[in-house]
Amino acid sequence: MPLSILEKLKQGVVLGDGGYLLALEKRGYVQAGPFTPEVTIEHPNALRALHEEFVHAGAEVLQVLAFYASENKLAQIGYANRLGDINRAAVRLAREAARAAPEPVLVAGDLCLTWKYQPGDTASEDECRRLFDDQIRYQMEEGIDFWICETFLHVGEALLALERAKKTALPVMVTLAWEGPKTRDGMTPAEAVKRLEGAGADIVGANCWQDPAHMLPVLEQMRKAVRCYLAAQPAAYRCTDAVPFFVGQKGFPDALDPYQLTRYELGEFARRARDLGVNYLGGCCGCEGSHVRQMARALGKRPTEYKEWQIDYEHPQSATEAYKQLREG
Q: Which residues make beta-bridge pairs with 229?
């Protein structure tokens, strides 16, 4: 019987996976803009392969691709009647990759912001509950190990997702996305995670929107505010102080290549976040297998795999050998 997410966190830092929607958009399987996950039923092999890539890189958790898999979002592209198929397939594909992994890998269900939430509006809150409950029902049919409720801009909506996910009696992680110093309903990072911890979240934190440089100060505030486990899954796209979130950059949604962070920047983030007291680490949009692999190495979870190489600088057979002096000079 594999350890639960809470048991694994007691043993030390857990490494999650990277981002799916933008990675699959680059590969031509997801439409930029709506970013809905019909890929789960239209191109399942592409998604399965990305799950397998993250496992190969060292991920200990696979998050199902159910971001924007709510009825209202799927209706935008004519897939509202495939809600169940898309959510069930998302879990099934992650579970297949997890079962094939050489080491135990957990599968996390997914709920995210709906864009339907209006603070103080009872009708919108009830609509969010209905949308979450539908996704929960379908994902539970295939079987998940815990919930990740992610990318919320309002603490109020995050609390609704937490409320619905807790009814399944599974552990729940809730992470917020940050556009600035406060959430859209006016809470600081410390205030926000205190509310979530008080409402029963097992793990709280930040995900997406921000790059590592802008997320680390947020995490520092969060760590000081709560006693529960803390999670961080930054975007791997460079932001600016003027616009500290990647979806506000001019290159969003489909010209983000110049903003891409290197694997080593994510590896350094993993070290710094761990030292700050973050317990669950992974990546979000822009974070691919190479980034997760470097995070695993930085955390001491995976050694650098080098095969023996007969290097001959006098008679080079690769550019690595031929241009050594230029690189070192």
A: 203
Cβ atoms of residues 297 and 267 within 8 Å = yes
- The single-letter code of the amino acid at 51 is H
> What is the reported pLDDT for 329?
66
Q: What secondary structure letter does DSSP report for 14?
A: E
At 260, list the tokens. Answer: 């891409």
62 φ/ψ angles, rounded to the nearest 5 degrees:
-110, 125
In order of 16, 58, 279, the CA distances from 282 in angstroms are 4, 10, 10
Q: CB count, 10 Å around CB of 1?
A: 4
Note the pLDDT of residue 196: 98
Q: How much is the pLDDT for 308?
A: 86
> Which residue range(s) make up the domain with 292?
5-328
Q: Tell me which residues of the chain have a pLDDT lower than 70.
A: 329
Among candidate residues 238, 239, 237, 219, the one with its CA nearest the CA of residue 229: 219
CATH of the domain at 259: 3.20.20.330
Question: DSSP letter string over 184-221?
Answer: TTS--HHHHHHHHHHTT-SEEEEESSS-HHHHHHHHHH
Whether residue 146 contacts residue 173, with contact meaning beta carbons closer than 8 Å, is answered with: yes
Residue 211: the pLDDT is 98
Q: Which residue has the tokens 């191109």?
A: 43
Structure-block tokens of residue 203: 């793990």
Residues 252-282: tens digit of each pLDDT: 999 999 999 999 999 999 999 999 999 999 9
Phi/psi for 261 (5° steps) reads -85, 155
Please state, in angstroms and rounded to a whole number, the distance separating the CA atoms of residues 154 and 156: 5
Locate the DSSP E strands across the chain: 14-15, 61-63, 106-112, 146-152, 172-176, 203-207, 229-233, 280-281
Q: How many domains does the chain have?
A: 1
